C-alpha cells in the first residue's frame, strides 16, 4: 500500500485587492488626502466646488461610523456573531481621547482650575486614579486601543468559553452596554456624568477649532478608515479569516475538525472592539463632545444596520451602508425631522425582508441580470 | 381654623383687654430678627387665644406700626394691637416686614397654638407640623396640650413632639429624658432627628443615651425596612413578570426576538389613556371603573397590532432570529414615531382610579400602596390565565405542538401559519396588559417601552427560553434582588450589579435557570 501522502494543491491565496480594487483604493486615498482639503481650504467659499466646514465635519463623522461598520462586519458578517455592544467600545475609545482633551484645556476652563470643570463643580480636589495618564498623548493613544480591547477580551473570553452564541450573545452584549451607560451617567465615576466631556480647546497644544486642525483630523480619519479596510481585507483572506468564516457557517464541524473556535472568535472580537475604540477617539475631537448616550443600546443597533444595509461579509458594503444611512440621517433630520424614524424603521424592515445581502448584493444581482 | 380665630379676634378686639402686653407686642414686631424671635419664644410661654390672634395678623401681613404704636388692620379699620380699641390709622404707618426666617417661626408658633383646636384633624396637622421644628420655647404649650388631649393617636404623636422638643433643650437632664422617650418610637423621622442631634451633642453621657436610643429605633425600623424592601421587590418582580410573560411566549415559544415588545406595551398604556379620556368625556360618573374597561381594550389593541406585524413582517423571518431582531427594532422605531405623531412627544397623564390611591399602613415605616397591591394581584391573574391557556386549551395544545415539531403538527392538520399568528397576538396582547398596568405606576410616553426591554430580555434569558416557570422565578428573583441591593448601594449601582450578576449567571448556566433538555437544547 502506498502510504506516502498525496500532495494536495491548494488554490493560490487571493490577492489583497484586484487591479480595479487597488485603483479604487488609491482614488479614495487621493480624495481624502488631497481633493477634500483643497476644496475646503483653497477653493473660495462662494464657489460651487467649495466644501463647507459643515461638509468636512459630516464626512469626517461618517468615516468614523464607517470604521465601526467595518469592525461590525468582521465580527458579524464574517464570524456570524451579532454584537449589540460596539457602541460601548466606540464610547470607551472616545472617553479615553476625551480625558486627554479635557486635560489639554488646562487653566482655560470656566473655573480657571487645572482640574476639569466638572470636578471643580463636584468639589473634588485631586484627579481620580484613572485620570493618571490622561495628560500624556502617547499614553492616550495606547489607552484608546487597550481599554476597549481589554474590556472586549475579558468579556469575550467568558462569553465564548461558555459557548454563548447567537441571540444570547447579542442580548448579553446589549446588557453590557446598558450597564456601562448607567455607570457613566453617575457623577462619582469621574467621567463627567450625563454631560460627559465637552468644551475642548486644543490637541497637542494646537487649537482644535482651526480649519487646518479640522482638516488634519479629517485626513487622519480617512487614512485610518482605508488602513483598517486593508487590514480587514488581509485578515479575512488569510487562513485565520477562512476559519472565521467556517465558524460562522458550521461551528460544530470546525470543532470536529480539530480547531478550537475560542481563540479565533476571541481574537477577531478583540480586534473589532479596538477598531471601534479608534473610531471613537477620532470622532470625539471632530464633534467636540462625548457623553454616555453614545452607549445607548440604540446606537449599537444602528451600527448593525449600517453593516446590514450595505451588505454583510463584503467589507466595502458596510462602509457604503454607513455613508448611505448617516447621509440620509443628516439630511432627513434637518429636512423632515418627523420622518427620520419612519425612514430608519422602514430601512430596518425593508433590508431584512428584501435585501438580505444589502446594497452590494443588489448591485451584484443587477449586474448578473444584465449579463 | 383661621376664620374662627379671626372671629374670636374681632370679638375680643371690641370687648376685652389683651393678655399679651404692650412690651411683648413691640418686641415681636420691632427690631432685629434674632431679638424678635426671642421675644416670640418668650410670649409663647404664656400664650393664649389673643397671642394667636395677633400672630395670625402678623402672618397675614395685617400689622402696621407708627412711631411706638402697633396696629392690627382689619377690613380697612385699624385697632390697637394691645387694647383692641379702634383707632384712626396714622398716615405714616408702615407695614411690618417678616423675612422667611421670621415667617417660619410665626408659622410654627401658630401651629403650636392650634394644638388647642376642637377639630381633631386640625390638631393632628398641627402636631405633624411641629414634629419638624419643635424647640424648647414651645414646650410649655405642648405639655399643656398633652394634659387635655383626648384622642389617643394624637396624644402619642404629641408625646413624640414633646420628646423632640426636649431633645434640643439646653438642659442635659431634659435631653436624657428625650433620648429615653424617643427610643420607643418606631418612626423613620425619629432616626433622622436622633442622628442630627447626635452630630452636635457635646455631652458624653447624653451622647451615649442618644446612641442607645438610635440603636433601639433602628432595630425597630429594621423589620419595617426589610419587609418594605421585600414588598417593593415583589412589586417590581410582578411588573417584570408582566413585562416578560408576553416575551416568554413570542421569544421563548416561538423563537422571535421581538425588540418591539416594549412598544406593544406602550400601545397598551396609550390604549388605557384613550379609554380614560373617553370615560372622562362620556361617562364621568363611572370614571372610577375606567380601568376595568381599559384592560380588555389594551389587550386587544396590542394583540391586533401584534397579529398585523406577524402577518406582514415576522412570518417571513422565522428561523432567522438575528434578522427578526433588526426588523422588529425597525418596527419599534416606527411605532414610537407614530405615537409621537398622534399624541405628541410629551408624557400623557394617566390617573389612578380613586380606589387605587392610598394604602394600608402595616408598620410605623411600612405602608403598602393600593396600586402596587392591585398590580401584584393583576400579575398573578395574568400568570394563571396564561398558564391555563397554554396547558389546558386547544389553542395552547396547538401552540405547544407547533413549537415542538412544526412538520408533524402540520401533518396532523394544524394550520401552523394561523397558530403562529394567534401565538404572536397572544404574546403581544399580554404586552398590552403589562402596558395597562405600567400606566398606573409610571409615566406614559413614547419611550415607555425602551425602559423595560433590556430588563424583559434579561428575565427571559435568565429564566430559560421556553419556560414559563423559569420566567416567574427569574422575574421575582430579579425584582427582590434589585430592591435589596438598592437599599445597600442605591438604584443605579443595584441595576448594574444585577446586570453583572446575570452576565455571570449565564456563564454558569447558559440555558437559564431551567435548561431545555433533549434535542431541542442545541437548536
TrEMBL record, chain A:
Its main location: membrane. Pfam families: BPD_transp_2. The keyword Cell inner membrane does not apply. This is Urea ABC transporter permease subunit UrtC. It is found in: Cell membrane. The chain crosses the membrane at residues 20-43, 55-78, 84-102, 137-160, 167-185, 215-236, 262-283, 303-327, 339-356. It comes from Rhodoferax lithotrophicus. It comes from the Bacteria. It is a multi-pass membrane protein. Keywords: Cell membrane, Membrane, Transmembrane, Transmembrane helix.
TrEMBL record, chain B:
It is found in: Cell membrane. Keywords: Amino-acid transport, Cell membrane, Membrane, Signal, Transmembrane, Transmembrane helix, Transport. The chain crosses the membrane at residues 229-252, 264-283, 289-309, 321-339, 370-390, 456-481, 487-506. Residues 1-19 form the signal peptide. It is a multi-pass membrane protein. CDD domains: TM_PBP1_LivH_like. It holds the Pfam family BPD_transp_2. PANTHER family: ABC TRANSPORTER PERMEASE PROTEIN, BRANCHED-CHAIN AMINO ACID TRANSPORT SYSTEM PERMEASE PROTEIN LIVH. Belongs to the binding-protein-dependent transport system permease family. LivHM subfamily. This is Urea ABC transporter permease subunit UrtB.
Amino acid at each position: 500500500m502506498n502510504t506516502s501522502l498525496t500532495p494536495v494543491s491548494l488554490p493560490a491565496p487571493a490577492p489583497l485587492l484586484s487591479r480595479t480594487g487597488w485603483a479604487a483604493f488609491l482614488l479614495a486615498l487621493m480624495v481624502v488626502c488631497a481633493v477634500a482639503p483643497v476644496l475646503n481650504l483653497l477653493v473660495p467659499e462662494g464657489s460651487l466646488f467649495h466644501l463647507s466646514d459643515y461638509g468636512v465635519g459630516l464626512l469626517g463623522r461618517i468615516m468614523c461610523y464607517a470604521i465601526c461598520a467595518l469592525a461590525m462586519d468582521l465580527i458579524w458578517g464574517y464570524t456570524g456573531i451579532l454584537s449589540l455592544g460596539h457602541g460601548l467600545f466606540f464610547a470607551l475609545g472616545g472617553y479615553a481621547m476625551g480625558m486627554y482633551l479635557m486635560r489639554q484645556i488646562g487653566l482655560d476652563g470656566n473655573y480657571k482650575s487645572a482640574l476639569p470643570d466638572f470636578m471643580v463643580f463636584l468639589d473634588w480636589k485631586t484627579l481620580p486614579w484613572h485620570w493618571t495618564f490622561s495628560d500624556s498623548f502617547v499614553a492616550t493613544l495606547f489607552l484608546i486601543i487597550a481599554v476597549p480591547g481589554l474590556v472586549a477580551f475579558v468579556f469575550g473570553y467568558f462569553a465564548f468559553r461558555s459557548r454563548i452564541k447567537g441571540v444570547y450573545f447579542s442580548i448579553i452584549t446589549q446588557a453590557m452596554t446598558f450597564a456601562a451607560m448607567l455607570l457613566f451617567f453617575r457623577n462619582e465615576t469621574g467621567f463627567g456624568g450625563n454631560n460627559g466631556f465637552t468644551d475642548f480647546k486644543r490637541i497637542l497644544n494646537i487649537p482644535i477649532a482651526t480649519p487646518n486642525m479640522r482638516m488634519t483630523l479629517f485626513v487622519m480619519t480617512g487614512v485610518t478608515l482605508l488602513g483598517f479596510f486593508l487590514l480587514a481585507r488581509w485578515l479575512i483572506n488569510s487562513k485565520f479569516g477562512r476559519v472565521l468564516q467556517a465558524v460562522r457557517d458550521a461551528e460544530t464541524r470546525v470543532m470536529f475538525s480539530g480547531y478550537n473556535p475560542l481563540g479565533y472568535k476571541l481574537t477577531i472580537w478583540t480586534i473589532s472592539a479596538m477598531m471601534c475604540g479608534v473610531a471613537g477617539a477620532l470622532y470625539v475631537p471632530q464633534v467636540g463632545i462625548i457623553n454616555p448616550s453614545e452607549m445607548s443600546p440604540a446606537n449599537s443597533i444602528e451600527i448593525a444596520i449600517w453593516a446590514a444595509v450595505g451588505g454583510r461579509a463584503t467589507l466595502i458594503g458596510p462602509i457604503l451602508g454607513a455613508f448611505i444611512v448617516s447621509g440620509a440621517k443628516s439630511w432627513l433630520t434637518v429636512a423632515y425631522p418627523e420622518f427620520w424614524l419612519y425612514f430608519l424603521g422602514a430601512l430596518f424592515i425593508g433590508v431584512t425582508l428584501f435585501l438580505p445581502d444589502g446594497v452590494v448584493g443588489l448591485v451584484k444581482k443587477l449586474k448578473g441580470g444584465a449579463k | 381654623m383661621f376664620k374662627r380665630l379671626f372671629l374670636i379676634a374681632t370679638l375680643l378686639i371690641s370687648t376685652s383687654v389683651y393678655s399679651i402686653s404692650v412690651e411683648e407686642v413691640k418686641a415681636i414686631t420691632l427690631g432685629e430678627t434674632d431679638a424678635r424671635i426671642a421675644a416670640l419664644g418668650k410670649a409663647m410661654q404664656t400664650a393664649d387665644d389673643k397671642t394667636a390672634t395677633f400672630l395670625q395678623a402678623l402672618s397675614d401681613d395685617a400689622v402696621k406700626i407708627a412711631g411706638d404704636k402697633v396696629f392690627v388692620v382689619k377690613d380697612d379699620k385699624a385697632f390697637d394691637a394691645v387694647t383692641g380699641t379702634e383707632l384712626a390709622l396714622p398716615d405714616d404707618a408702615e407695614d411690618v416686614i417678616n423675612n422667611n426666617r421670621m415667617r417660619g417661626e410665626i408659622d410654627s408658633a401658630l401651629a403650636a397654638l392650634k394644638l388647642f383646636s376642637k377639630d381633631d384633624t386640625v390638631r393632628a396637622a398641627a402636631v405633624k407640623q411641629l414634629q419638624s421644628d419643635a424647640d424648647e420655647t414651645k414646650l410649655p404649650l405642648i405639655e399643656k396640650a398633652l394634659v387635655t388631649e383626648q384622642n389617643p393617636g394624637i396624644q402619642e404623636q404629641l408625646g413624640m413632639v414633646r420628646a423632640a422638643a426636649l431633645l434640643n433643650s439646653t438642659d442635659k437632664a431634659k435631653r436624657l429624658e428625650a433620648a429615653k422617650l424617643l427610643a420607643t418610637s418606631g418612626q423613620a423621622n425619629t432616626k433622622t432627628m436622633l442622628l442630627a442631634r447626635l452630630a452636635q451633642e457635646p455631652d458624653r453621657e447624653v451622647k451615649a443615651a442618644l446612641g442607645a436610643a438610635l440603636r433601639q429605633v433602628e432595630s425597630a425600623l429594621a423589620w419595617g425596612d426589610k419587609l418594605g424592601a421585600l414588598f417593593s421587590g415583589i412589586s417590581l418582580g410582578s411588573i417584570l413578570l408582566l413585562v416578560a410573560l408576553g416575551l416568554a411566549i413570542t421569544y421563548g415559544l416561538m423563537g422571535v426576538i421581538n425588540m418591539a415588545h416594549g412598544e406593544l406595551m406602550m400601545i397598551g398604556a396609550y390604549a388605557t389613556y384613550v379609554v380614560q379620556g373617553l370615560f372622562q368625556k362620556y361617562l364621568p360618573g363611572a370614571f372610577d371603573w375606567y380601568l376595568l374597561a381599559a384592560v380588555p381594550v389594551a389587550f386587544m389593541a396590542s394583540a391586533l397590532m401584534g397579529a398585523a406585524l406577524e402577518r406582514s413582517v415576522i412570518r417571513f423571518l422565522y428561523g432567522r432570529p438575528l434578522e427578526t431582531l433588526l426588523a422588529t427594532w425597525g418596527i419599534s422605531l416606527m411605532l414610537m414615531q407614530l405615537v409621537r405623531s398622534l399624541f405628541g412627544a410629551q408624557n400623557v397623564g394617566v390617573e389612578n382610579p380613586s380606589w387605587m390611591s392610598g394604602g394600608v399602613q402595616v408598620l410605623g415605616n411600612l405602608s403598602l400602596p393600593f396600586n402596587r397591591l392591585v398590580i401584584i394581584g393583576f400579575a398573578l391573574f395574568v400568570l394563571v390565565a396564561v398558564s391555563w391557556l397554554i396547558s389546558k386549551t386547544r389553542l395552547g395544545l396547538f401552540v405547544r405542538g407547533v413549537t415542538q415539531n412544526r412538520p408533524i403538527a402540520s401533518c396532523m392538520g394544524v394550520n401552523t401559519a394561523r397558530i403562529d399568528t394567534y401565538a404572536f397576538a397572544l404574546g403581544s396582547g399580554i404586552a398590552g396588559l403589562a402596558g395597562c398596568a405600567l400606566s398606573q405606576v409610571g409615566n406614559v410616553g413614547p419611550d415607555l417601552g425602551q425602559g423595560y426591554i433590556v430588563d424583559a430580555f434579561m428575565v427571559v434569558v435568565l429564566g430559560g427560553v421556553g419556560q414559563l416557570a423559569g420566567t416567574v422565578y427569574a422575574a421575582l428573583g430579579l425584582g427582590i434582588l434589585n430592591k435589596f441591593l438598592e437599599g445597600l448601594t442605591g438604584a443605579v449601582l443595584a441595576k448594574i450589579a444585577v446586570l453583572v450578576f446575570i452576565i455571570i449567571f449565564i456563564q454558569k448556566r447558559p440555558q437559564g435557570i431551567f435548561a431545555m433538555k433533549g434535542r431541542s437544547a442545541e437548536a
